[in-house]
Design a protein that fits this description.
With 427 residues, this protein is α/β, with parallel strands linked by helices. The chain has three domains: 155 residues, Spo0b-associated Gtp-binding Protein, Chain: A; 170 residues, P-loop containing nucleotide triphosphate hydrolases (Rossmann fold); 67 residues, GTP-binding protein OBG, C-terminal domain (GMP Synthetase, Chain A, domain 3, 2-Layer Sandwich), CATH 3.30.300. It contains nine helices and 18 strands. The termini are far apart.
Length: 427
Amino acid sequence: MFIDKAKITIKAGNGGNGCVSFHRAKYVVAGGPDGGDGGRGGDIIFVADTSLATLMDFRYKKSFKAQAGNDGEKNKRSGKDGEDIVIRVPVGTIIREVESNRVMADMRLKEEQRVVAKGGRGGRGNQHFATAVRQAPRYAEKGKSGKQYEITLELKLIADAGLVGLPNAGKSTLLSMVTNATPKIADYHFTTLTPNLGIVKNKWGETFTLADIPGLIEGASDGAGLGFEFLRHIERTKVLIHVVDAAGVEGNDPIESVEKINGELYAYNEELAKRPQIIAANKMDVPEAEENFERLKKEYEPRGFKVFPISAASNVGLTELINAVREELVNYPEDIVFNEDFAEYVEPFVDKGEPFTVTKVSDDYYTIEGVGVEKMMGYTNIETEKGYAFFQKYLKDRGIIKALEDAGIEQGDTVAFCGLEFEFLPS
């Protein structure tokens, strides 16, 4: 089964917590802090794999979570890093963040690797917080949370040229005649159900990839028929080969057929309508086709379209058509790449005056709880001089210091909040 779109959730591993520990050894009266750092959380890594052709693997497995880093240990031993998760996707897969719909990565190169969700950094142990004033810090950093996203995977075939046209115009037959592809072809009124890729090689040994995009119908850009599901596969193509039934075997007027498809391409993505387009007037072995071929030339050649008479079934006119496509590709050398415009948004800390609670647990141990306090600690790096100054100012301005003093705290008592412990030193 051909699956070209999937929605999954990815979660990088959390960083391990730093350790609070003090060196203990025989004949050592007062060992210093020796808490180790927490390990780094595992990353979510995507790899472009040429052996994959669909996103079938994501039909049932919807969630991927990397391993968390281990907590730090005593004797300055760091916790083990979490293992990364490697997710293999077909070449040409676009990774989008669902909430913003922005492109996070375009996996267009063979074996390309991209870290899409970064694991959290491990917290630092209390060995890093010892100072001349505070020689026995009883707190350590918590590990940072790993990134989590809901993402959409979209497979967009990487092809130089694409075949478009109404169902039964002869696209699959044309693909089978000029490439090594073997699409299913039969004499029935149904359309191809999956895109097909083939390699075209001319007499000079030059090659390019050609994709047969399943038949479009009127209203495809609004979701009608199969065309809407596969329109994404022509977004990378540099040249469009518009195959039209010049004989009108199905009762369709050739000019109306071309206009219908071009209207759908424009409605789906205006850029597609600007791509070089070559009209392949097919089924020229049918007598009625000659008159319509002249009509097509008269209508589209003045508008810059090249029109070629072909018969895909009898291999007539295909060499001239392929040479014309090759000439267009020479003038369009650069690959079509989807710009990666995703940027993580970090919300700045804004104190909204949330309430806090000061609790006296014992004679020398106090705790502080509150949403605002937790947010402040989440956005403040107290390891830096500027961050520590902001931390002290926040406690004073919010009235937390006064609340502690009112509760009876004294110099040297311990204050705990957000998983950290501090020694109270009144200013």
